[in-house]
Amino acid sequence: MGEKDMSYAVLEPIRPQLQKPAQSQWGRVTSLFAAPWVLEALDRIAGLARLPRNWDGYGSPQIDTRAIAAARRFVASVAFDSLPFPHIAPVLGGSVGLHWRCGDRELEFTFQPDGAVEFLKVMGPDLDREESMEEGTLRRETETAGLKLLLWMVGTR
Amino acid sequence: MLEKEVAAERTLPDFENPPAVETLMGVHFTPIKRWQGPYFGLFWSRIKKEYPRVEIQPPVVTASTPEMAVAQFQSRFELPMRCWFFNQGETRLIQVQSNLFLHNWRKVRSTDKYLHYDDLRPLFEREWQGFRSFLEDEGLGSPVVQFCEVTYVNHIDRGSGWDTFAELSELFPNWSSKTSENYLPSPELVAMNASYALKGVEGRLQISVQPAVRQTDAKETIQLTVTARCKPASSSKEDICRGLDEARKWVVLGFTDFTSPKMHALWGRKI
């Protein structure tokens, strides 16, 4: 993928509820009718800001506001109706964790204060097998890349 | 023309801080017969300096059912696609497909100045003329315009004039929160779609109210989309401009009529 100031063409992944005649609007919103759980998820992520320093008893800092904002933008961008409610948790070092499970597929995202998003993809019941797991870091266009992973998880890719 | 002089000529309702976050204007035309995928690239090569990034999107479909929409593209052995060409600052966008040409403007930062229709229509005219020249140079003919479109997308964020959907009637006077037997509690979400036939011109005004979360900042908002489409007298530049002006008049008057005086005061109504 090229840098922001270079010319390039991309093919955007399409969320399941958007597979209907497209409209001509540019700015993106997520309909609350299409994903009614979104508001509660956004509130819970925002609530992580209330955790004090040393919330885990091991000296962890407060959850970073940039990590909270990034996780909220991510949820607002990738939500669709067949996506289940995520498990939301604070992560060591001030990060935010989101975890989804669908059948025997699991996805975990960790939003770091520096903007990086780590993911862990798990498939199948036999977690001892190396090929059942894949991990990586998303540094750019995290919503688009994350949406592709979530579509894999719910079985549409 | 000086901004003051332009403002002095304005007769339609005008607001100091309108809730518009995006506006678009453009034309829908009879599908260009020999249009094929490579023409997207050829057109891009003409505008790439000003519009350096492109995205492929599913097409805007005007057919009334999904089956008809599929048939619309399959019958012509055409890839069902649309291209978005973004300008350098990603504040403007050109959308092209075999039967459509649109020009969008959007507010990127909350501090960005609202770009008025008077500023945007000349930009559209220039880009549309460029597209028409491209079609002529490639021997693809002149597009037969079916209708002109103007759309304003408005965001009314929670906390700016409303806090719960029980207050919706304070935003939109045509919505009543009353029920016959007072059994139902206040709604947690409300969406509305309304369509109006235009008077004195062939076309429609469509208004949509949609509760949503904005993806760029995860804020809850009510998206109020107002679209007017009207048939121009011909495909000439003058008639298209008249069609756009008519559509825009309906959008502005429709928006003002659909929303409440309380909100007009909040947005700083000037006229």
Tell me briefly what this model is.
The complex is a heterodimer of chains A (157) and B (271). Chain A has 157 residues and is of the alpha+beta class.
Helix content of chain A: 10-25%
Element-by-element helix/strand order of chain B: HEHEHEEEHEEEEHH
Q: Termini of chain A, distance in Å?
A: 21 Å
The overall number of domains of chain A is: 2
Walk me through the structure.
The complex is a heterodimer of chains A (157) and B (271). Chain A is an alpha+beta fold and 157 residues long. Chain A folds into 2 domains: 1-33; 36-153, no CATH class. Chain A is 23% helix and 25% strand. A 5-stranded antiparallel sheet of chain A has the order 3-4-5-6-7. In chain A, a hairpin with a 2-residue loop joins strand 4 (95-102) and strand 5 (105-111). Chain A is globular. Mean pLDDT of chain A is 84; it is low at 1-7 and 17-22. Chain B is an alpha+beta fold and 271 residues long. Helices cover 28% and strands 28% of the residues of chain B. Chain B has helices at residues 3-9, 38-47, 66-74, 117-137, 237-258, 261-266, and strands spanning 20-29, 53-57, 82-86, 92-97, 100-106, 145-157, 192-197, 203-214, 220-230. In chain B, strands 2-3-4-5-1-6-9-8-7 form a 9-stranded antiparallel sheet. In chain B, helix 4 packs antiparallel against helix 5 (237-258). The chains are: A alpha+beta (157), B alpha+beta (271). At the A-B interface, strand 1, strand 2, helix 1 and helix 2 of A face strand 1, strand 2, strand 5, strand 6 and strand 8 of B.
